Amino acid sequence: MVSRILRKLLLLMYAIIILLPLLMVAAATMKNQQQFYMNPLGLPSSFSLENYRNLFVDQPMIAYFSNSIIVSFTAVLLLLILASLISFGLYRLSNKFAKAILVLFVVGLMVPSQVNMIPIYSFLRDMGLTNSRTGLILVTISLFMPLSVFMISGFMKSLPREVFESASIDGAGEGRMYMQIAIPLAVPYLAATATFLFVSVWNDLLFPLLLITDKSKMTLPLALLQFQGEYSTNYPGLLTGVVIISLPMLFMFLFLQRFFISGITAGSLKG
Amino acid sequence: MGVRKTIYWFFVPGLLLYLTFFIYPTLKGLYYSFTDWDGMSETLNFVGLRNYVNVAENTIFHKALFNNLKFMFSVVIVQTLVSLVLALLLVRNTKVNIGLRALYFFPTILSSAAVGFIGTYLYDPNSGLLNAVLNQIGLSFLSNNWLGDPSIAIYSVAGIQAWAHIGQMIILFVAGLHGIPEELNEAPRLDGGNRWQIFRFVTWPLLAPAATLVIAYTTIQSFKAFDLIYVMTRGGPSYSTEILSTYIYSAAFQNYNFGHASAASIYFLAIIALVTFVQFKALRSDKLPN
Questions:
Q1: Most B CBs within 10 Å: which of A51, A115, A126, A246, as the mutation test of the B interface?
Q2: For residue B2, is it left (φ>0), alpha (ψ between -120 and 50) or beta?
Q3: Transmembrane helix among the record's keywords (chain B) (predicted)?
Q4: pTM of the model
Q5: What architecture is domain A59-270?
Q6: Residues B59-114: tens digit of each pLDDT
Q7: Which residues on B lie below 8 Å from A209 (Cβ)?
Q8: Distances (CA, A) of B276 to A100, A112, A271, B226
Q9: Residue ranges per domain, chain A?
Q10: Contact A109/B at CB under 8 A
Q11: Which chain B residues contact residue A250 at CB under 8 A?
């Protein structure tokens, strides 16, 4: 009995630790500055969406959103295509060449992005690809390639080899086997990989920070960092930015919870 | 058998990108570490091991390495203990438990920029939530300038890092717990074992692979931290939250000493490799990336 109450108490306490900061942030976005500083803990006197309106008026929020959407969707889509092609190739070959390629990707898994951020930055600058979404997308794809290959090829390994052997005897080429057998079977895994990659790319701060300086090209997390300078004394404004960049993730999480949890867990197992 | 040569084409587009934008720059970084390049000028001179010596003798680098360890140990300890306890409480797949797991997991999917600002707001000495709550419940003597006091700032950031990732570790522990056959918990209970004994002698040994995994992942993740520190403190006050990644970043992009920063990043890579190697040894082979 005592232990049951203790258990509930602990769970409740931790729920408060998670929820209270989030709710207070949400409440702060509905206060004006005076209300916020006079009464930081109190509820907003009225539910004013003034801060949200101001942010959309003062900032090119639509551009930030479309940049984030363009970069994330393009990078994730291309990653799924390129990494599944490579994974399928590794699965079909499983020879010395495949082993060498795998080693090349293991190296990539071991190198943290803080290590190659300097040469990547200067390489992109030399190519004239800084301050461009294309440059950011190309770098993002390359950085997440090792992890994507590991996640997808982990699944490919479990496919029965006989299926492909008989398809080959029936005259199917590699392209057809990939399109008509491997990819349809991989759909649930590709979906989990896609959510993991999407969250990582959408939330990435380091490479947008390095590569993008034009406001019109910024993604949401980088834009949020800019608000820090502009709204240094305006917490409600800053926290409104926090809520705005988090809302898309919140909605996706509510609808795709399973994929999120399994994808991120698989990503962390391999990473 | 029966693999057609066309399969080699499957590698071309992905490998081409990967070699161009990842492998080539990484090797170039190794090259920069032996030069005096400032990141801008046309010319650069080969200086041998001078950058490596300079980095190794730099007191701020030492401080950054030490802070990195402080940050890592505090995150690993807090994150592992809290997530283990919560996972044990949430192991059964009831509706409430599944809901709570999702709630606890939620901060994991927030951008670290957003988490960083939430942390900055929580810790603000005047209008922050933490001090306000402490004052409200009569513990005002505990209130503090959480990010402004050099002796605690690194732990404050570590707390936010743990807050954001505990839910993810709960999921890993719950998966580990679900892998333990029910009979193994039943038998000792019938023999009259108490909860602690069952945990100590049955659950814990069987949970070891999951625990190793959580600890390994958290170690690497917290060692590589950058975003939260960058957003919340930029390494300050007076270098008290400077860690290796922020050290490399400011050496390169604030002091324009690409050679020095590149040498520091090679040290960073070596340390990460060492940590990873030790952990791969400790991990069971079936938990390795395959």
A1: A115
A2: left
A3: yes
A4: 0.91
A5: Orthogonal Bundle (1.10)
A6: 999 999 999 999 999 999 999 999 999 999 999 999 999 999 999 999 999 999 99
A7: 230
A8: 21, 12, 11, 18
A9: 1-48, 59-270
A10: yes
A11: 106
